[in-house]
Amino acid sequence: MPTLRPRARLALLVGLLVAAGCSLLAWNPERLLTQDFTSVVPGIWAGPAFAVVFALSTLAFFPKPVLNVAAGAVFGIPVGLALAVIGTTLGAVLAFGLGRGLGREALQPLLRGKFLAALDRRLTDQGFVSVLLLRAVPGVPFQGVNFAAAFSGVRPWSFTAATALGVVPGTAAYVIAGATASSPASPAFLLSIGAIVAMMVLSLAIARRSRRKGTPPKAVKPV
Questions:
Q1: Which residues, in sequence order, are CB contacts of 65 under 8 Å at separation 6+?
Q2: Could you tell me if 134 and 145 are in contact, meaning their C-beta atoms sit under 8 angstroms apart?
Q3: Of the candidates 209, 146, 128, 140, which has an alpha carbon nearest to the alpha carbon of residue 170?
Q4: How far apart are CA 114 and CA 6, in angstroms?
Q5: Is the torsion defined by CA of 55, 57, 61, 66 positive or negative?
């Protein structure tokens, strides 16, 4: 939108995100992404439609673990994992595109601070590795990474590839839990729950360590 000034584009971005979040009052992704999903959208369109709804739900700040569990419950482990990763990546790219196109220019003056300038340099110079690590570490806010990368100089393809790879371990744990929830005594379900608990504990440990060191805790808040 070249005719709008940077602050106007930033205001539009905030308005779009608020509207996306408020839209959850009108539609419930958790109710939509249930076992009945394949009967509502049958055939070969069920998978693509699920991925699109998944992506739009993340843009509306719907909890991603719930979506991952739904993917496993509806499609099983292999297909559910693939669709969850695709939906996650698509949602991240949408948020990245909005942030890069509408907010980056207006927020550039704020990056002069020591911490934000260092974060911007790190994301710009080591975009793929930085995003990959942020995606892999438990508890890092999904949308926080999306917009931090969008406001920095991370290349779109580096961001996309790092996101697709980095979310696989955490996504797999929730997808497996959703797919095996009907058999709570099965080894797969128990292992997935163990992995989820371990990720939560690790997230809390990172948060405590960050607070002790006086570092900003925004990268360790639970999703």
A1: 174, 223
A2: yes
A3: 140
A4: 23
A5: negative
208's CB contacts (< 8 A; 6+ apart) are none
**Which residues contact residue 87 at a Cβ distance below 8 angstroms, ignoring those fewer than 6 apart?**
50, 51, 52, 53, 54, 55, 58, 67, 71
Based on its alpha-carbon atoms, the radius of gyration of the chain, rounded to whole angstroms, reads: 18
CB atoms within 10 A of CB 189: 18
The number of C-alpha atoms within 13 Å of 68 and in the hemisphere containing its C-beta is 21
Secondary structure class of 33 (helix, strand, coil): coil
Measured distance CA(36)–CA(43) in Å, rounded: 13
Closest CA to 223 of 136, 143, 162, 129: 143
Interatomic CA distance for residues 217 and 154, integer angstroms: 22
* Contact (CB, 8 A) for 33 and 53: yes
Q: What does the block give as tokens for 101?
A: 């196109």
pLDDT truncated to tens, each residue of the chain (223 aa)? 456 777 788 888 889 888 888 888 777 776 667 757 777 787 888 899 999 999 999 999 999 999 999 999 989 999 999 999 999 999 999 999 998 888 777 676 666 655 566 777 777 778 898 899 889 887 888 998 998 888 888 899 999 999 999 999 999 999 999 999 888 888 888 898 898 898 888 777 766 765 665 544 444 444 4
Give the alpha-carbon dihedral of 81, 162, 134, 156, to 10 degrees. -120
